[in-house]
Specification:
The protein has eight helices and five strands. The chain is α+β, with helices and mostly antiparallel strands and 186 residues long.
């Protein structure tokens, strides 16, 4: 069951603290708690940093990298996104920096969908990720929206459970961007 279905809201500690500072003390959001972790960082930890802090400075605060990491991810392992540079600032939506010595995902090869249905079972929105990814690969906006592709929360659960290692979340995310861009043009 999703939190909304149970009549509750789930937030992390930093969000709750930020709400307190804003509502009770009248202070604007100027800092975030960011986690720096992974096998590619010397001293993993949580850091309370100013918005605008460079990710490279955040990594340095955690003792720096171990060797030459192959992959950096901003956000969590399921919904985060790969970073091509650490020369970007921490923003209000920043939560973590994952540093990996090896980029296992880029070395993984995907195969054809075996129609197992695991992606649909894992989807918290009860969507059909394999079907949506198919629409995305064919650039079929009409089919994508008809099957509620815009309702995807991009949690990554479908890609995680896929035995064929298909990049379902990435395909759906790309199609969502296309649909939104085309809507803005109208």
């Amino acid at each position: 069951m999703l939190p909304a279905d149970a009549g509750c809201i789930v937030h992390n500690v930093d969000t709750i603290f930020s709400i307190y500072l804003s509502v009770i003390e009248g202070k604007p959001l100027t800092k975030r708690i960011c986690t720096v972790t992974g096998d590619g960082v010397k001293e993993p930890g949580n850091f309370y940093v100013w918005l605008g802090t460079n990710y490279r400075q955040l990594l340095d605060a955690a003792g720096g990298p171990v060797g030459e990491p192959e992959k950096y991810i901003s956000g969590g392992p399921m919904m985060g996104f790969a970073m091509y540079s650490l020369d970007v600032p921490v923003v209000k939506g920043s939560s973590s920096l994952l540093v990996f010595q090896k980029d296992i995902v880029s070395k993984t090869t995907s195969s054809a969908c075996i129609r197992c249905g695991k992606c649909g079972e894992a989807c918290p929105e009860h969507l059909l990720p394999a079907k949506l990814a198919g629409f995305a690969s064919r650039n079929d906006e009409e089919g994508f929206t008809k099957f509620d592709g815009m309702e995807c929360v991009m949690c990554g659960s479908c890609s995680y459970v896929c035995p064929a290692k298909r990049p379902l979340t990435q395909q759906i995310k790309a199609m969502r961007s296309t649909v939104l861009a085309n809507r803005r043009k109208k």
